Amino acid sequence: MDNWYEVRTTCDTNINVSAPISAIAFDPYQELLWTGNEKGRVTSHFGSGLHRYTSFRAHLNPVRQILVSDKGVISLCSDSVKMTNRRGLIKWTLSNEDTTDLHCMTYTTMPNSEILAAGKQHNMLVINVARGIVVKKVESESDIVVMRKSRLICCGANSGEVTLMDPRTFKVEHRVQAHTGTISDIDTIGNLLLTCGSSARHGNLIIDPLVKVYDIRTMRPLVPMPFPTGPCFLKMHPKLSTTVFIASRSGQFHVCDIGNTSDIHFYQVNTSSYVNAIDLSASGEMLAFGDAASFVHLWEDRKEAKINAYSNPIELPTIQTPPNITTSERSSLSLIGMPYYKEPLLSVWPSNMRFEVGNPPPKIDPDILNNMKMIDFVGYSPNPGNMKRNQVVRYSRKKHKDGTPKFRSEKERELQSGKTELDATSTKMPKYYKRVEIQYSRFGVDDFDFEFYNKSRYAGLETHIANSYCNSLLQVLFFTPVLRLITRSHIGTACTKENCLCCELGFLFRMLENARGRNCQASNFLRAFSTIPQALALGLFEPDEPDENTPYSMLIQNFNRFILEQLHQECNSNNNPRLLKSLPLEQTSHSMIQQLFGMQVASISKCQCETQTDRLTTSFVSHKGKERESKTKAFVDILRTSIQREIQQRAWCNNCQQYVPTIAKKIPKSLPPVLSINCGAGTSVPLEIWRTHDGQNAWLPERVSMDIDDDDILTVKELSSDAIVDINTSGSSKHANYELMAIISQVRVEKEIPHLVAFIKVPKSELESTSKSPWYLFNDFSVKNITEQEVFNFQGMPVVLYYSRVDISDLMDTSDLPSEIDKSILFKDISISKHHSTNKKSVDLLTPEELPQPGTLVAIDAEFVALSQEETEIRSDGTKSVIRPSRLSLARVSVLRGEGAKEGFPFIDDYIAASEPVVDYLTEYSGIKAGDLDPGSSKHTLVPLKIAYKKLRLLLDLGCVLVGHGLKKDFRIINILVPPEQVIDTVDIFHIKNRQRKISLRFLAWYLLNQNIQTDTHDSIEDAHTALLIYKKYLQFKSEGKFEKVLEDIYSEGHKHNWKPTHGMFPTSHIEGSSSSYPALPEMLETNTTEISSEIIENQNSETSETNFSQNK
């Protein structure tokens, strides 16, 4: 031990953070040395080179001790204990009324799991390292300033006494008065205990020049070791059990053998100050000193010394390749390095040389520029007549960006009123036509103010869902009343197709009906749409990253044709209802979609050899062709030639047995109740032709008349509003008067991604009384009432038109639609799992006698898995913005009876089969594990999403009232909208409106029911049952008239416990005069594989069962 030498000295060069070193510790798991200074900063150094690794401010007061575990670094100051990971990220902080003057800490019998902290205070604290909470308090008889642990916990007191405690019971086993003054340091290894301290002599404390040695087994003193300069620090060698390092504050230290005090080696630390802390590495090869001048001195006894014999690698920053320099609007200018320059930059222009200049002139009317004539450099033009003499357009001196509020948590600055009509002289697109985006704050999507964008009673559809470009057409289909009735009737049938778009459309329409102006999502419909192979083959899916060239007009037109064809196939059956009164009896095989949208068209192909082939087809969408004369032709003429046309083409002739020129004709045989028209993407009709001029519609008629005569010649005429009343089509399929009901337009702003909006004429039966016109603009979740003039002053290119017959209510009879709802799904045990056992069930299915009635109380809870991770963006100013949150999917749903003899028993506990790859099962929060959602390996009741959704939809339609905790987010992910009168959410019941804190179910169960739930993971049956019991408690408090007091007590207790239930402890007598003996979850429900027998159900009603519930709790 005579070869120790100093190898490295380092200090913090930043004078603002440097301070005397107050604590030092080697890391037993990695090659790191940790130091803490008197400013509360903790710093780590790597290896023998003492390379700076991490540094962070841990405390406001001096760091008194550092302990290093495998999970992180624990630092202690006078009033707090904090645990961080090795990068400095905080895991937990403990600071309360129990931490008044802490001095030291050590591990208990459970290393890395519990620590014991003590100081000059009445109680020693046993702290759980994983959770950062005090699990036990031990009364202290003296002020403890230093602790070490071997077989017993050795505590050195300020009075000079050393006490030895049992690390399990914390009872004092031995005491020894080592010094008459205070203890400076102690250390222990095996059965040896060493102490150093001071003694009181003549009223002063003098450092004892001896290191006292004790045998722990007999508590007898052994031969002390002399240290003339005054010992202040002791460190036993971890491998040589009798070797000890003794150091003084002046920097002198000895290495000596306890059994041979004559074998001493003397060393001196090169310090200009005094030593505050020392530590010896676990390998015994390194010794570190920290002094009051903020220097760290490292000593070694060999070359290539290591802190540990075997160390874990440290975590290093990820080496990233240099990013490609982008030049988008959001790119930071700092991405591009500054070039070398010799002259001053423009950015250093002095402030006193800046002058405000005038605004640029307003844009000149294009009509004036088109008619302008030039003489020399002066241009003149006739007055277009759209303004009075000497009148100019009002021009604001400052243009402000649209300051629409995005978050409810922000201060509302919305204007209560404002001009919504288009200014006759304005050529600028109104802001509500532009693409709308959902902005996410730290509170999530619930903080986004959707109400700012929609003040009507009609629901908008959210974006940020794959293929949400379909929103505009979905809204148009919703405002087609007959189709809405067809889909509602369809979801009441026993449809077995998993990804049935007609079912999903019906579910979506039910949401939109119940929304009452709230925003909805078409996520389930679009998920089913994305699973259809034909849609992929037709290229109907939106690109992952759309750009300004994305052809949304073609996408929506193709989707319009696809969705009607798909609905026709899914709604077609052997016994189709006869909705169209004019439909001949022999054509009752037509599907309901055919009867509503189908146009019978005869396709005739005639060869030069006079061979003719006839074929009768059904067309759901008419295509307005690309006419060269579009600028001069009327719309009705182009529409007629698009429906009834004759073309020459080369086709195969069976008679000639070759491709020959043929004449192909398309002749309409009947007219549909609803006429869908695709306006030919890329048509040569310019936007100016579509727009209204001088208050008159120049091109697109609002009403048209169509007639097929006896010679199958189609005539299309434009009708005025007065002519509709006089013409009677008498429900004929060959004579029809149509009225424009919807327009889908593609809005394109320069250098921005185009998007689709829908103009919809709301039927009179659904129109708001305050509406200024029946026309509404649907721009995803932005809904706005607009005038008819604004509709025809197109701000975007029309791509899809919908016309409806004016006599459609008389023409269509929906009374034959099936109205009976199939309720058998609630009584069946459905599962697609290959390992599902019908003998063992986790639920007691409903019987027909138990069919819910309006107002029936049921408890519900759901669990979810993540299908995609959160997408974030770091902006140029360093702020983090959530672009798209993680996409969650329903994984499990449980529904329990809320009343009656079987109260608390589940009748639905379905796991949802995963149709998409799961990136995170969120097992800690959901209880779902890999394999639970796989039909090939799951042992649970596994069903497709549609089956689970249909059960919930049926419960709502039956009038059930759902009880649960935090249901708003659950319903949003499930994609179901529940009327407020059918929801009882305990998170809202036990909440004080003027406080931000929402109380967790776990804390409410701990406080109100004396139950510990969610200890290991979440279980939806347990959570639903707990929410039901808490609601029953609420009813009890309400009837006793003390609910408000209880709620205040809950908030008070929550602040006291940091909203975390104390393990093993329950609040006693927290509610005066109330009983806390509510039953816990019955044993039969605690495991999902326990068989439910009729005997258990019958025993539920007996007195024995009530006793068992009480004992079970």
TrEMBL record:
Localization annotation: Cytoplasm
Sequence positions that bind a divalent metal cation: 861, 863, 970, 1023
BP-aspect Gene Ontology terms: mRNA processing; nuclear-transcribed mRNA poly(A) tail shortening
Parts forming coiled coils: none
Any single Gene Ontology cellular-component annotation: PAN complex
Reactions it catalyzes: Exonucleolytic cleavage of poly(A) to 5'-AMP
UniProt keywords, alphabetically: Cytoplasm, Exonuclease, Hydrolase, Metal-binding, mRNA processing, Nuclease, WD repeat
Role according to the record: Catalytic subunit of the poly(A)-nuclease (PAN) deadenylation complex, one of two cytoplasmic mRNA deadenylases involved in mRNA turnover. PAN specifically shortens poly(A) tails of RNA and the activity is stimulated by poly(A)-binding protein PAB1. PAN deadenylation is followed by rapid degradation of the shortened mRNA tails by the CCR4-NOT complex. Deadenylated mRNAs are then degraded by two alternative mechanisms, namely exosome-mediated 3'-5' exonucleolytic degradation, or deadenlyation-dependent mRNA decaping and subsequent 5'-3' exonucleolytic degradation by XRN1.
Alphabetical list of HAMAP family matching this protein: PAN2
Similarity remark: Belongs to the peptidase C19 family. PAN2 subfamily.
Subunit structure as annotated in this protein's UniProt entry: Forms a heterotrimer with an asymmetric homodimer of the regulatory subunit PAN3 to form the poly(A)-nuclease (PAN) deadenylation complex.
Designated name of the protein: PAN2-PAN3 deadenylation complex catalytic subunit PAN2
Protein's gene: PAN2
